[in-house]
Amino acid sequence: MSDGAATESGATLEQELERMLEIERFSPPESFRAQALLTDPAVYEEAARDPQAWWAKQAEELDWFERWDTVLDDSDPPFYKWFVGGKINASYNCLDRHVEAGRGDRVAYHWRGEEGEERDLTYAELHRDVQRFANALKDLGIGKGDVVGIYLPMIPEVVVAMLACARIGAPHNVVFGGFSAESVKERMEFSEAKALITVDGARRKGRTAPIKQQVDDHMHDLATLEHIVVVRHTGIDVPMREGRDVFYDEVCAAADADCPAEPLDAEHPLYILYTSGSTAKPKGILHTTGGYLTGVAATHRYVFDLKPESDVYWCAADVGWVTGHSYIVYGPLCNGATSVMWEGAPDYPHKGVWWEVAERYRATILYAAPTAIRTFIKWGADIPARHDLSSLRLLGSVGEPINPKAWLWYHQVIGGGRCPIVDTWWQTETGAIMITPLPGITETKPGSATTPFPGVFADVVSEHDGQPVENGQGLLVLTQPWPSMLRTLYKEEDRFVETYFARFGRETYLVGDAARRDKDGYFWVIGRIDDVVNVSGHRLSTAEVESAIVAHELVAEAAVIGQSDEDTGQAICAFVTLTGGVEGTDEVEGGIREVVAERIGKFARPKRIVWADDLPKTRSGKIMRRLLRDIAEGRALGDVTTLRDPDVMEQLQEKIVEAQAQEQ
Ligand code: WT7
Question: What is the pTM of this model?
């Protein structure tokens, strides 16, 4: 079915989608409801009546070495503790309990490499590899409480490394492979990591990036980092420093085979994951063990209606983001799922590769980002149409608001009209899905993440007085603690309280998103209210990008904003003032983009650079990004009277119109 071709009803796809836009809501198809895990809306009432009892029931689905004595300790908000007194291990719950129950032969991951290589990993094999590597880490002197960095591409070893850390109680700190080595160094420094697990080289669309070499170029002076473990993936030559660097396969071969999982306190740190906030310094989100596992396992089971015996589940995210942590690793493995793990990009070796992979493994559930869906729309419906996608029964969306048109395309073209869509709203901080449909219960409305998961409490409040907003837009807040919530910002407790629990008191979590609620109580998330930009579902702070840009020797000043973008949701637009007399040329522009790639990563490079003689500033010298956003979106200018020099805006407005015209 191509975009212009007629569908079964005789209309073109475009006409059909237009018609469907008028449909307000979609009920779960009968065929789906007939086999769904949850079909009775009474779960919402049950959870609302006694949230602690509801979450305790979810926690009971896990294996505990010792049961908790208190479900929730809320004596010192916002420092909540869940399942206090309980002893648990994440790696045990992901592996041992399945193997012990005779499910060791089940495939945990169908791994598929860029060039079509295939590797199936069963639960028993994963269990074996994780034990060896956990012992190897111990042999290197890594123990409970030591932070271990992980900078790996989408290969099975990334899961082995995470679970090996979890097994011995060493919190992992995974850095997404798209970040630069410089970012890795910064994150290793902030977290005082004792070891880093990385790779010789990473493949990307047929090319190999020399990762270990890049790491070496930046890591040299880090005192706390004692070891670098190198996974051989592409086989390229790598520099190895005697006494510090070891090869993964060699340390594994030398290690003992048996490594029992360590019983850890429910509140033992499981991992740190750095994410962007409103300042240039990333925030180290800290997640602990018992509550986090409870949250991810329960949401993974019920949001995706998971039947571990028959489903083939594919979350097409990268392990380096929270989506990968919660819904490629911990949630699916806790639930004994069989997953697909895809190493590559969506357009290599060809633009139909996702659908080839989905068909090959008969995927039943697909969880993807709206930015990917919009890209597929652009490439045309005839590409997925070449593949048999009839195995799919449920589709998920995450990372940014999905526009109704993209929702409907996903529903029709990928889901064949028969798959419910779960639009899941959550964040790195929340650990697990918070606002989402339950696919056998909820009527969905394209573009809305619908209502909070049972046991989660959200509201939309006024930014002025914190009172609930009945009609219209307000700030999204979570009004009760939940098990998988972040516990603090690593080594920055004050910033934790300040960022999330200062505005409306210590018991109300400030999300950082604007939202509205409709007459049915459905939530419509609009986007960030802080200086955080969402580019293709990658979260970036404008301050972080600005500080990279000003590192360029010719740059005097920079202001970065997120601009709506058809493909990537938001795109980075940078207003740059150069040092006296220098002309803004293509070469300077290239240089700036390179500095950003080097400091943060390629995905953070500005899409648009506007040369500015001056930036709009208040009399006290603060850059008014709000005004820049207004002109970038073509909106009428707000109040400019507080500006030091109101003329600046006029000039900039002309420039941006010029820049946009040139791109057309
Ligand atoms: C921000 C969190 C959740 C894992 C991936 C991103 C936006 C996320 C949705 C959605 C509308 C969404 C929000 C949120 N967001 N999912 N379904 N609808 N917006 O995690 O990097 O921590 O980013 O992503 O703005 O605050 P993250």
Answer: 0.93
